[in-house]
Amino acid sequence: MSKTQVHFHPDGQEALVELLFQLADDDFLLAYRGSEWLGLAPHIEEDIAFSSISQDTMGHAAMYYQLLEDLGCGSADELAHARPASARRNAVLLERANGPGHYLREPRYDWAFTVVRQYFYTQAKRVRLESLTKSSYAPLAEVAAKIQVELHYHLLHWHTWFVQLTNAPLEARTRMTKAIQDVAADFAGVLTLGAKGTEMVRWGLIDEEKVLTENTIAALAPAFAEVGLDWPMPFGMKHGNGRNGEHTPDLDEALATLSEVYRAVPHAIW
Amino acid sequence: MKKQNDATLAAPGSQSGKTAADWEMRGRIMTKEEVWKTLELVKDPEIHSVSIVDLGMVERVDVHDGAVSISLLPTFLGCPALDIIRAKVEEAVKQAGASAVTVEFLRHPPWTSDRISEAGRERLKQFGIAPPPRQMSPGAWQVECPYCGAERTVMENLFGPTACRSIFYCKQCKNPFEAMKPVLISG
């Protein structure tokens, strides 16, 4: 994208960089987990759809890493591949493995967990983008507006799966109900802005956590009415707060796999 | 790549088969109109009938002291064809005679599917892709079959072979086809 060097008020820069890392790492890790479904999705149409969504989401992450590069934080490729788990700011929910097993050796991934995680995250992302289109940092507001128009199709897709599976009888509903509890237990980690949240709001970068949370709940609530399930509140951070650098071994494993080629051939062109 | 170009510079017309007339073309000053005309020859790498101008991807063309700068809008951010398009634009404009070309993708404004020109819509159909609707009617996306024009079509998959296309089926002529997704700014 555009290579122009850009600046924000020096005192607000730290909060801006922190926010961009959250946005970039969230999309990056979930896109990676999505890509691990390639060839394993329930049917061929889903394989195509999910790959397309993951590729697009990876494109969103690349835009945020580019904004960080423009601010002098290092090259986008390096930021995506080379940062250790402790430097990552993604929500823990998004780094969690798709299920037991391994991609190459007997994957026993959980489709219910995947659908619920994708649906919840996409709703939260939509709310966050709406706020970011009014961000005081113009390049971020512009990127948000661009991503926003693409997200419509992601949301439509995951909403369809969420409602159809939850409204299906027997095993499907049982597994979806369990997955909802599982996702809710970590979902507060997606909604939080972390330790520098107050600073982000003070600099007009994004709305406050409370507003974002309320709007996300309002966005998710109609689907719960549609499937006749109780609201799974309160949301938790069962496996830690990724915004503060707390992560699970799942992230180490993901980073080791996704950065394998980058580490082996650092000068490769992407 | 760079090395090869230098070699061509050193000996124009020898190995590359270029004539002296071709060589004189290089380094001349192109007008904006010429650049636009050249860009009409740059096709979407995945839809060969449609140019990037037809798709509404070209936001701006500037010529300053012979240096051409072109600003493009990405259709979808995750589109892997963007770098290919950038390279094809540079190549085409240099081929047309410009001495210096810079191509950048803009973050703003967002590309929307109503930027596709009338000619572009026709060319999409020739390629077997239904053009996107001009307006999004709530809940319904009515798609005409690009082959027979029938309205009796059903969506098979919202997602197709690329981020910007969906897969449909025509109940009239029994052909599967693709449709370009409407991408519009919602209110």
Automatic annotation (TrEMBL), chain A:
InterPro entries: Aromatic_CoA_ox/epox, Ferritin-like, Ferritin-like_SF, PaaA_PaaC, PaaC. It comes from the Bacteria. This is Phenylacetate-CoA oxygenase, PaaI subunit. It comes from Geobacillus thermoleovorans CCB_US3_UF5. The lineage of its organism: Bacteria, Bacillati, Bacillota, Bacilli, Bacillales.
TrEMBL record, chain B:
Residues 1-21 are annotated as: Disordered. Residues 32-104 form the MIP18 family-like domain. This is Phenylacetate-CoA oxygenase, PaaJ subunit. The lineage of its organism: Bacteria, Bacillati, Bacillota, Bacilli, Bacillales. It comes from the Bacteria. Residues 131-181 form the PaaD zinc beta ribbon domain. Gene3D superfamilies: Fe-S cluster assembly (FSCA). Signal peptide: none annotated. SUPFAM superfamilies: Fe-S cluster assembly (FSCA) domain-like (SSF117916). Transmembrane segments: none annotated.
